[in-house]
């Protein structure tokens, strides 16, 4: 059964304290780099409860809660999560992430958002931390809550964190998405940004403009889902355009695809100028490509749709620019580069061609590179840069962040595993995630800090329809409280 929920409805779910705070996060918009409204609200909330607060130069919010009486000597614990969310929506959605609240839906034990992302990544980690800060019954040592900003758009908050801000030397990161697993390492990475000026030409005589859309892909997290061979709308549409070029004169007006660097592109659009004879066959040609893609991606992408409709255009890219863009995008890597030989089943190096925006006057493309080895990130970024250099196109790497090196001998991990076994009478699992977590950056700034990451089960992060399992939220909350209480001097 599915039902749209209000903020009041959310607060009826268990645990009430966690879901009440999540209702607040649904109400206050929080795109990356626009977290100030939420941060200021949380700072005021904390100060009203007598808690110490500080906003650092990067915009991160730090909240400190003193130890309960008699536990002042317990090692300090940092609870860490990020305030921003990935903002993805379907093409037919009118949602404005800078203004509109997220509309949660409850279905079969999951809270989700229809047509947009939900923000459970990393909203659940933030809300559990808030619930723990206001818990007056739980015995605990000194607690610091670090709410970072700009995680999804480059980890700017963690990058800007000063190395003398945190006092605790244990840290629980609450930004992973599979209940029952403790994460002890993650990939590092960087962005490669491609920019090229254009040279416009008038639309050729006898040609009409058509807008081709490729939609219906699943999308997803560019780290968590990269190994699942999901389709990339940009790469697929480039193949269609190059196929059209073999049938007659095709001139590119524009190409757009993807809206987030760390999300697999679900949709892409191209406006093209076609001679009348080719336009008459366009629908049939696109049907053939659609059938081919459905066959190639059978079992992975069952809802691919290719359509065309008349459009308006005055200019096209020059033929040279069109060849450079389409040829380079077609040749550019996307997906898994290498699987780890030390960690079976774990991706070592990958990249996501996440965003493209091309017009007659110029274009931009973004690749997000990830690797468990910093040298792997650099090598793949250099490969992409070298490809674009062949056409004299400027491509630059930026925003590099380190991976998080696993420490299997972590005392905090041993404690977490012991408490998990006691609370749930089952064994937990230790994992290394290919997605980027802020743990690597923080660990580099605070050598010797013992860090473990865990969280509830989230499906479809970074894509419309993102959902979080309600039962796993309750279990994660139970585990968090138990771990905090179990930390001893």
Q: How would you describe the shape?
A: elongated
| Amino-to-carboxy terminus distance | 48 Å
Structural class, please?
Answer: alpha+beta
**CATH architecture name of the largest domain:** 3-Layer(aba) Sandwich
- Mean pLDDT, to the nearest integer, reads 95
The level-1 CATH class of the largest domain: Alpha Beta
Give the number of DSSP strands: 24
Q: Kindly provide the radius of gyration, computed on alpha-carbon positions and rounded to a whole number of angstroms.
A: 24 Å
CATH superfamily of the largest domain: Zn peptidases
Q: How many H/I helical runs? A: 13
The proportion of residues forming helix, as a percent range, comes to 25-40%
Low-confidence region ranges = none
> Largest sheet, described in full?
9 strands, antiparallel
Strand content: 25-35%
CATH topology of the largest domain: Aminopeptidase
Please, how many domains?
Answer: 2
């Amino acid at each position: 059964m599915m039902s749209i929920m209000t903020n009041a409805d959310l607060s009826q779910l268990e645990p009430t304290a966690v879901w009440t705070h999540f209702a607040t996060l649904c109400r206050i918009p929080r795109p990356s780099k626009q977290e100030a409204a939420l941060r200021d609200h949380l700072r005021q909330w904390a100060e009203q409860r007598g808690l110490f607060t500080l906003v650092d130069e990067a915009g991160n919010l730090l909240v400190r809660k003193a130890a309960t009486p008699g536990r002042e000597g317990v090692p300090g614990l940092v609870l860490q999560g990020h305030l921003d969310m990935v903002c993805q929506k379907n093409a037919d959605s009118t949602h404005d992430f800078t203004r509109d609240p997220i509309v949660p839906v409850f279905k079969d034990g999951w809270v989700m958002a229809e047509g947009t992302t939900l923000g459970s990544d990393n909203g659940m980690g933030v809300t559990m931390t808030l619930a723990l800060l206001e818990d007056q019954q739980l015995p605990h040592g000194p607690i610091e809550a670090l709410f970072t900003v700009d995680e999804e758009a480059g980890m700017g908050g963690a990058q800007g964190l000063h190395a003398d801000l945190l006092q605790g030397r244990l840290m629980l990161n609450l930004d992973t998405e599979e209940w029952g697993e403790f994460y002890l390492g993650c990939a590092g990475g960087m962005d490669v940004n491609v920019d090229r000026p254009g040279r416009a030409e008038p639309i050729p005589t006898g040609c009409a403009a058509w807008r081709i859309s490729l939609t219906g892909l699943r999308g997803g997290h560019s780290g968590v889902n990269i190994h699942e061979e999901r389709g990339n709308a940009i790469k697929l549409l480039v193949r269609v355009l190059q196929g059209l070029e073999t049938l007659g004169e095709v001139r590119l007006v524009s190409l757009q695809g993807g809206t987030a660097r760390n999300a697999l592109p679900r949709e892409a659009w191209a406006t093209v100028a076609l001679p009348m004879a080719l336009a008459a066959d366009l629908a049939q040609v696109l049907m053939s490509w659609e059938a081919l893609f459905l066959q190639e991606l059978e079992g992975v992408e069952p809802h691919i749709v290719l359509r065309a409709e008349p459009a308006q255009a005055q200019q096209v890219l020059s033929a040279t620019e069109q060849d450079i863009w389409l040829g380079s995008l077609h040749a550019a890597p996307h997906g898994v580069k290498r699987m780890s030989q030390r960690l079976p089943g774990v991706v070592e190096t990958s990249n996501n061609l996440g965003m493209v925006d091309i017009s007659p006057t110029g274009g931009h493309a973004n690749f997000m590179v990830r690797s468990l080895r910093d040298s792997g990130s650099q090598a793949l970024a250099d490969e992409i840069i070298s490809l674009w250099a062949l056409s004299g196109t400027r491509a630059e790497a930026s925003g590099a962040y380190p991976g998080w090196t696993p420490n299997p001998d972590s005392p905090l991990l041993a404690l977490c595993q012991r408490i998990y076994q006691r609370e749930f009478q089952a064994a937990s699992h230790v994992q290394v995630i290919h997605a980027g977590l802020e743990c690597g950056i923080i660990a580099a700034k605070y050598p010797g800090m013992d860090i473990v990451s865990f969280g509830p089960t989230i499906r479809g992060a970074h894509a419309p329809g993102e959902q979080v399992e309600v039962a796993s939220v309750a279990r994660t909350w139970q585990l968090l409280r138990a771990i905090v209480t179990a930390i001893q001097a």
